[in-house]
Amino acid sequence: MLPEQELQSILAHSFEIDFPEMISKEKIIEVLSWRVDKLIEGNPDKLFSMLYRLDISERKIKEAMATDNEVTKKIAVLIYERQLEKIISRRNFSAETPDDDLAW
Q: How many domains does the chain divide into?
């Protein structure tokens, strides 16, 4: 599975979004922005809990929220980028073979 496909699947599950098919990064961010907006309006505690679990820097979140425009899009981009980092990191980590001394 490509990182983008895996990312879309993870975001769909985590943020309860139904993506109809593989879509572009821009479309994912657009849909994710919509979902972030709904969470801010209806359940901000849930959103902040999710951001915490995703391990998104509090500083970055505050920077995104300190602006007057496109707050939800900026948060959506942070979510997108962090999830993609995690996927790539997992793949790189699992691809490494252990040293003979560490292999059991």
A: 1
Residue 10, helix vs strand vs coil: helix
pTM of the model: 0.78
Q: b vs e for 45-67, b when ≥16 Cβ sit within 10 Å of the residue's Cβ?
A: eebeebbeeeebeeebbeebeee
77: buried, middle or exposed (CB in 10 Å: 19+, 13-18, 0-12)?
middle
**100 is a domain residue:** no
Over the stretch 23-54, which tens digit does the pLDDT of each residue have? 888 988 999 999 999 999 999 999 999 999 99
> What domain range includes position 74?
3-92
Please tell me the total number of residues recorded for the chain in this structure: 104
**Is residue 101 domain-resident?**
no
